[in-house]
Amino acid sequence: MASCFSNAPCLTPTNGAAPLAYATALQYFAAAQCFLTHNLLPEAKLKNHDTFDFIVVGAGSAGSVVASRLSENKNYNVLLIEAGGDAPLESDIPGFVGSLYESDYDWKYHTENDGRTSQAIINGTVGWNKGKMFGGSSSMNSMYYVRGDDQDYQTWYDQGNKEWSVDEVKRCFKKSENLLDKERLSNPKISEFYGHDGPLNVNRFNSTFNEYIAKILEAWEEIGFRNVPDLNIENVNTSGYLLASATGGVRQSTSKAYVIPAEKRSNLKILKHSLVTKVLINKKNKKTEGVEVEKGGKKYVFYTKREVIVSAGSVASPQLLMLSGVGNADHLSEKGITPIVHSPNVGQNVQDHAVVPIFIFSDEPNESSLPEKYLSYVDYLVTRAGPLAHDDIGTDASAFYTTVEGATYPNIQTILVVYPKNTPGLKEGFSHSFRYNDTIMDDIVELNKDHGIYLFVLNLLHPVSRGHISLKSKNPHDAPLIYANYLSDETDVETIVKALKMSSKIVDTEYFKSINAFLGRMNIPACNELELDSDEYWRCVSINVVSTLWHPVRSCMMGTDISNSVVDSRLRVHGVKGLRVVDASVIPSTTSGNTNAPTIMIGERGSELILEDNNY
Ligand SMILES: Cc1cc2nc3c(=O)[nH]c(=O)nc-3n(C[C@H](O)[C@H](O)[C@H](O)COP(=O)(O)OP(=O)(O)OC[C@H]3O[C@@H](n4cnc5c(N)ncnc54)[C@H](O)[C@@H]3O)c2cc1C
């Protein structure tokens, strides 16, 4: 048996029946992958200078929602333009999400090396991966479905964004949701909290690590993070299972939820592999006229009768505004772009969820054998369960808590990641996600040979530090420069150090003691002399390995006027007529958790505002 799995030939005589049966079975299962995917989206045949009521730039988490909602009205012609193409099979299967990082389906943005933080990360640059395909980042994210806290949206409202009251926001979350988790549906209070007939299916992952997660939940309870049935309802000093934008073991991107069901509408035209290089704004009357597009080496112009909606995400939306003449006038002139509207906040004030890890090594979980692994691949095709049915870098267990005594609002989220002993591809996986350097990873891989790893990823929910995004050049193919500025404000360092010390206590709980767990020291020369688990140690680790949870926001933030923001609370670009931004970049202060659900909600609310303003 062992020889069969080490590629040695099978020496037993055969009359051909058995190999044929197995070859046919393998062919059947190989073909069964196709049942997972949808046919390719239809692409419109357009003529240069065609005109539309609305042009939506970017078919990501928000753009897909906007194009779908606007085209529900048959009187409006809508053009949806996406730089990428159809999402690949690996996007549908949650367990293959890691293969999308740094692939052709990723914009592969990297932050600039600031010479101070993240120096134990490859090249000192943090990977700001972003989906380049239909569904955008919702086609390559980890699928955690987290709404955030009421207080987040109350803050938006209190900042003068009157269209975003807690009630309106909740209504729009519900409008998008179709809750399918049986356990939550059976609890009237939880069931009532969610929507039931929206386009986006939300459910629980069917995690293969449930046996271990149950023990971690007990350990969290022991250190004061109470287990609760729903983390969207109770999120201060609590722990439990997250919902996911996935169901039946398959990802639910916004393309799947919103664009595919609308693809046959005659008033919705779709362009793939088409890069919008500029929004055309009349210099005199500041009115938006259309967009310039590059597709297959050719240039096109499409015009709008009403509005252009930029939904290109937190990096590309400010880039596109700047390329179009909307931004800091000095910066634009320096890059050889004629300023049309001096809008100093474009690309400024960026807030991102910064993360720092705790590695705990222990006797569990044991590695799975090669036959088990391959059987699970086949099993997935039949049952949609097993390791491929959940995100490959995380579990759905999470805790939310506060480092501030008595606070009713979380400032930290921890996500649990489990690596069984001898996890194949561990180093490669990290080189695409958190990008720790070889010095760190070689030690971790060595320890992983005999120890399972419980990795706790701590997410600083409300960082005070701010980054910015600026143009490298006026060439739309040049990625913009990203200055993340993580932990540049001392308050953030203090919060994360406190949180790491609160969380590392888990190693002393009953379960962890029973599996001989110990806190791992990350091999960072600058920190190696410091006492493990001391404030100084965590401070040093935080500065050296701080990375991202891929949640940048605020680069085109909403607010009351051009001096403090880029768009108004109806998401109209200040100083320009007929131009809006609708995506994560408009978030005025970040939310208490992962940002996909809030961005979809913004897509819903943004569509309503556009329709209202166009007399619908
Ligand atoms: C690796 C990763 C993991 C994450 N995990 C989670 C998670 O588990 N849960 C969660 O809630 N959030 C998660 N997020 C964050 C979440 O996915 C994002 O906040 C959200 O998708 C942002 O949506 P958006 O519409 O602003 O941008 P995107 O979804 O990125 O969409 C922008 C779209 O615009 C297109 N585009 C850009 N420029 C142009 C142009 N010039 N012309 C035409 N098209 C263009 C892009 O190709 C893309 O399709 C994750 C993100 C990443 C990248």
TrEMBL record:
Domain of life: Eukaryota
GO molecular function: flavin adenine dinucleotide binding; oxidoreductase activity, acting on CH-OH group of donors
Gene3D superfamilies in the record: FAD/NAD(P)-binding domain, Glucose Oxidase, domain 3
UniProt KW Transmembrane keyword: no
Cofactor: FAD
A Pfam family that the UniProt record links to this protein: GMC_oxred_N
Listed InterPro entries: FAD/NAD-bd_sf, GMC_OxRdtase, GMC_OxRdtase_N, GMC_OxRtase_C
Keywords: FAD, Flavoprotein
Keyword Flavoprotein found: yes
Residues involved in FAD binding: 276, 550-551
Annotated Glucose-methanol-choline oxidoreductase N-terminal domain residues: 313-327
Similarity-based family: Belongs to the GMC oxidoreductase family.
Stated name of the protein: Glucose dehydrogenase [FAD, quinone]-like
Organism: Trichoplusia ni
Gene: LOC113492056
